[in-house]
Amino acid sequence: MLIAPARHFVVAAALASMAASASAADAPGAPARTYAVVSLIGDQFSIVSRRPEVGTRLDPNERTSLAVPDAVFDRIAAIAVEKALNDAQPGTPVLRALIRDPRLFALQDKLLNESAESHDMRVALHDLLVKAGGTDLILVTKQRGEPAFMTGNGKIFAPGSISGIGFYIDNVTRMFNSEHLMTGEGFLAPYAYIAVSLVDLGSMKVMKSKYGLETTMALPQDKKDAAHSWDALSAQEKVDALEHVIRDAVAIGMTGLIGP
After folding, report:
1. CA distance 187 to 1
2. Which of 134, 57, 54, 143 is CA-nearest to residue 93?
3. Residues contacting 185, CB < 8 A, separation 6+
């Protein structure tokens, strides 16, 4: 199903399991709910590089942001939300909306609260999704947090902050692979730092919100001919790793958001 552009939104939406779930949604005493799913994490990914700690800096990391013209990562997040919804409530009607409006991505930090800056976007999003049949919105947004990476001995905490999706590059920390008994410097950590929020579309009120902060780690010494932490994963392995952490972060964010 395609929804026509509304207030400069360009939306591709698919209604899944509507017919199959109609009887469950219309059961006596059970209000019919249709969940619209919108992800706003995939317009770009970041490459965050740890700099040598010399002197005092406002930001101890170097950052590069790369635009993602396709909705591939938002689609991954939306599918993960839909899976969690149907695991919690089998047959749940889901409206998956892929929105690529740059203003919506830029305003996502303010989108959950009414303000002069967010008002028009909140009204446009409400009108679009309600017209399509949505009663509730599950919104996936970027969340800022301290870089933290799991190892076999616990967590490594890094300076600064990360948010959304991307890769953290460390070429400084001394690492040891207990499986291969190899040591080396640095690591590459794909990450997904997100928030998942349940919004009542009638009132645009946030009902629940939960963070999903997920990372994984690759060591350059485990990869033949990898002279730099960035080379610890191939191009395809980087994409696969981002998909993995996005799915895990969404699963954590969805935990307890929807009742059984």
Report:
1. 43
2. 134
3. 171, 172, 173, 174, 175, 220
Q: What is the largest CA-CA distance in the chain?
A: 66
**Alpha-carbon gap, residue 158 to 165, rounded angstroms:** 16
Structural domain boundaries of the chain? 2-254
Six-digit token string for 204: 């645009």
Burial class (CB in 10 A: 0-12, 13-18, 19+), 189: buried
Q: 0.90 cut: is pTM over it? A: no
- Going by C-alpha positions, the residue among 71, 54, 66, 253 that lies closest to residue 167 is 66
Which tens digits make up the pLDDT trace of 175-218?
Answer: 755 555 456 678 999 999 999 999 999 999 999 999 999 999 99
Backbone φ, ψ for residue 129 (5° rounding): -75, -35
Tally: H helices and E strands in the chain? 5, 13
Instruction: Give the contacts of 117 (CB within 8 A, at least 6 positions apart).
Output: 107, 110
Helix 72-88 × helix 235-254 angle, to 10°:
40
Quick check: 62 and 73 in contact, CB under 8 A? no
pLDDT tens-place string over residues 28-51: 454 679 999 999 999 999 999 988
How far apart are alpha carbons 4 and 6 in whole angstroms? 6
- Average pLDDT, integer, range 80-109: 93
